[in-house]
Each structure stands twice: as structure tokens, then as C-alpha cells.
Amino acid sequence: MSSIISHQPLEYNRYLNKLVAWAWFNGLLTSRTRLHMKGNEFCDLSRLQELVNDVSGHFPLRLPAPTPKALYSPCEIRHLAIIVNLEHDPTSAFRNQVVHFDFRKLDVFSFGQQQQCLIGSIDLLYRNSWNEVRTLHFSGEQAMIEALKTILGKMHQDAAPPDTVEVFCYSQHLRGLIRTRVQQLVSECIELRLSSTRQEPGRFKALRMAGQTWGLFFERMSVSVQKLENAVEFYGAISNNKLHGLSIKVESNQTPLPPVVNGYASEGIIQFFFEDTTNDRGFNIYILDESNRVEVYHHCEGSKEELVRDVSRFYSSSHDRFTYGSSFINFNLPQFYQIVNTGDRFQVIPFRSQTLTQLCATQPDNDNGDFQPRYQMH
């Protein structure tokens, strides 16, 4: 180390991944290269050697030149490496500690009783269709969310999927589980991004990260991320995302519910009430969460079927069934109703659609033979 002090470095970077990539793709890393580290509390020499071996073993140094067609077209990610916990590894704190967790709910993104995210840092290394090499670094509890949004944002919807997506994990503990889970999540999100069409633009995925819920909304032109604090915020995001036109939020203490809705309000379940308006001005939605807090959307223009389908997809995509605690009972059991005018009075009937027919089983709910939908997501 003393021999290199006062010598100007050939390359400097704050992040180890970029420095290794620069050295490898410029031909400075060979089988005879000796690596040294000094004073780095985040990464030791053995982990650095693993990174060098993974990068040199999976990224060829020479590739055919890109074709003119590729250069004229928007660049696409061709080879993607996701490098997990290289510089910050939350699992290193597990040494000589007793860690309590449930094997039946082993979620590396919200792990154990503290709901800790076991992803401390993510580095991206990718080669695009123009043969350019890029690196990016993310750290902190939301590193996974930020990395996902960045990856998906670099994929225009008509792009071909990457030829190769690899995950390299350098955690001291649970390495295989973390690598597998990250691989599954990234692959699923890439598929959602590239399979959305103009006919079905509103796909989304919900994630629990460090005890918080996030929604990834896959639109035609972009992918957006929104933190969802509770059930009402989720429904608000879905409504604003899916229903076009004017949406007016009304505070719960100022919301005059139709009397017929008041009669059906029930704590412990989430209820949607659709009400068609006159003069073809769309429809109203009354949403009651488990605590009977109300959110109202007036004169919505859009498809009720799409809204029902996307809310249902949200639940079916949930890995932990989104139980927020005792105040959010049966968060995964929504019920959908239609308010109808029978001539002399208003009445509430179950909302019937092809989506609900596929997703729920109906059963008599009272003595006069009326039916109430019951939903069970798996």
C-alpha cells in the first residue's frame, strides 16, 4: 500500500461495482491481477474477489459490433446483472444473535418481527443493444424499489426482454433465499412491464418493503411508484389511476352517504358501491374500508369491469395478504355492489361481472334467498 501512496490513480469511483466494471471492460483485470483492499469496513477482499469472478465469468469482454438497425433503434437492456448487498449487508448483524422469524412467512423484504428489509444495497451492471456498459448504485431500505423503478423505466414497452438477467448476492446469511427472491421479483416485474398493452394499460404490483406497502403501476409510457399507507390510499390510487375524468375526494366527516349504503355498511370488510348518474355523466363510487371510513368519487368515466379486475388482481398478487394489523381486518376480502333504482326506492344488489364470476363463490346471505358475493384470493 505504501508503494502506491502519492501516485495518481488511473480511475476513481465512490462505488466498488463501477470501479471493477471499468477495470474489467478496459482489459485491466486478468488472471494475474492482484487485488488489495485497505480500510473498507463495508466490503472485504474475499467479497471483492467474488465480484471480480462473477463479472469476468458472466460478461464477455468482446462482442460483435451492434448492427446499424440496433444503432438506429432505441437502446434496450441486453445483459443485466443485479448485485445485492455488496457494500451494505443487513444480514451481517445476525452474527452471534438469536433471530426470530416464521419459516412459513419468510419474506426477505420484510423479515422477522421487526419487518426488516434484508436488501441493504443494490448495484446494477448492464450492457445495452448499443454495446454500452452502464452501472448504477442504490442503498438503504428502499434500494429494491428504486432499482426496480430504474430498471423498468429503461425498458420501453415494445422492447424485447433482456437476453440475460442475473442476480449476484454477497450476503453473509440467507444468500440463496435472497438471490432467488430478488430474481423472481425482477423477472415478474419485467414481464408485467413488457406485456402490458394499449388494451390493458393499468397493470400493477404491490410490494411489502420494510413493513411498508408500495404499489408499482405499469402504464403504457412509464412505471410509477406510490407508497400506500392504508386501504383508503390504495383505493384512491387505483381510482385515480384507472378512472378518467374528474375525481373528487370528500372527507369522511363531510360525506353524505345514500341511506341505502348506510344500511349495508359493515365493519371488518371493504365495500365498493357503484351508483350510475343521470344524463350519462358517468358513475359515482362509494368506498368504505374496514373501519367504515368513506371515500367518494363523483362522475367517474371508465370501466367498472376494469376497476373490479384490477382490485382483484391486487389481492391475487399479494404474497402476505396485506394484513396491516388488527385495525385492518380482512383486507383481502372486497365486496362490490351496484345501487339500482327499482322505481319506488333504491336498492343495493351484488355487482355482477365476468371477473367476479371467476373469482368468487356466491352463497345465500339471508332467509329471503338474496345472494352476497364472498371473495377468496389464493
Main sheet, how many strands, which sense, barrel?
5 strands, mixed
* Total domains: 2
Q: SSE order in H/E notation? A: HHHEEEHEHEEEHHEEEHEEHEE
> Distance between termini?
58 Å
Q: Largest beta sheet: what is the strand line-up?
A: 10-9-8-11-12
Describe this structure in words.
The structure is a single chain. This protein has 378 residues and is of the alpha+beta class. The chain folds into 2 domains: 16-225, no CATH class; 230-375, no CATH class. Helices cover 26% and strands 24% of the residues. It contains 9 helices and 14 strands. The strands form 4 sheets. The chain has a 5-stranded mixed beta sheet with strand order 10-9-8-11-12. A hairpin with a 4-residue loop joins strand 2 (121-128) and strand 3 (133-139). Helix 1 (16-25) packs across helix 2 and helix 6 packs across helix 8 (304-316). The longest helix has 21 residues, at 175-195. The protein is elongated. The N and C termini lie far apart (58 Å). 29% of the residues are buried.
Topology diagram in text:
Elements: H1 16-25, H2 45-58, H3 68-72, E1 77-84, E2 121-128, E3 133-139, H4 143-153, E4 164-169, H5 175-195, E5 203-209, E6 212-218, E7 223-228, H6 231-242, H7 259-264, E8 270-276, E9 283-288, E10 294-300, H8 304-316, E11 334-341, E12 346-350, H9 354-359, E13 360-364, E14 371-375
Parallel strand pairs: 1-4, 8-11
Antiparallel strand pairs: 1-2, 2-3, 5-6, 6-7, 8-9, 9-10, 11-12, 13-14
